[in-house]
Amino acid sequence: KSLVVLVSGNGSNLQAILDQIELGKINGKVSAVIANKESAYGLTRAKNANIPAIFIDHKGFDSRQEYDQKLMQTINQYQPDLIVLAGFMRILTPVFVEHYLGRMLNIHPSLLPKYKGLDTHQRAIDAKDKEHGASVHFVTPELDGGPVVLQSKVPIFAEQETDELAQRVQEQERKMYPLVINWFCTNRLKMVNNKAVLDDKEL
Ligand code: GRF
Asked: Is residue 75 assigned to a domain?
């Protein structure tokens, strides 16, 4: 299968995906990496792996619709089977999301439906939660609200530092995202009627 990965930052999830492809653990290839930030280190990771690394600046577009139109045109040149959001920090328009419905995954650093949006680690600490984690979900027009495929939990220890918690969550992310992507690439994972389905069983 052909994957297009969208990033805005470091790209540690992208790196985990590239590493697992290299090891033969994902039945697919990354055809392109696209960023909305020129400084995104994920672009460097793509170049290092000889993968097209494309920066699309929001400057020069009058609206979100126009930006997403350009993004869609660029993505479609690579004829991807799956769009992977890996730390892509830009809200996508409903038209864009509908176009890739059932073919776009995101990873979010919380145990959804808890803590949609930003600052999830701090919010979990402030709420004195005992556990935190990450979720992989299909992307639907509701922000961070699409059907969850897999979650990974980590304990929150007393006096937990936010950075340290974030690191432990991200360690889990790098394990779980390649696994879920391979489920999709081997036709085991689908979205049916707004539900995630693995091996014909609703999740
Ligand atoms: C991850 O924590 C992911 O859950 C969130 O953004 C972060 C991206 O990290 N959506 P990286 O760019 O993959 O290193």
From this structure: yes
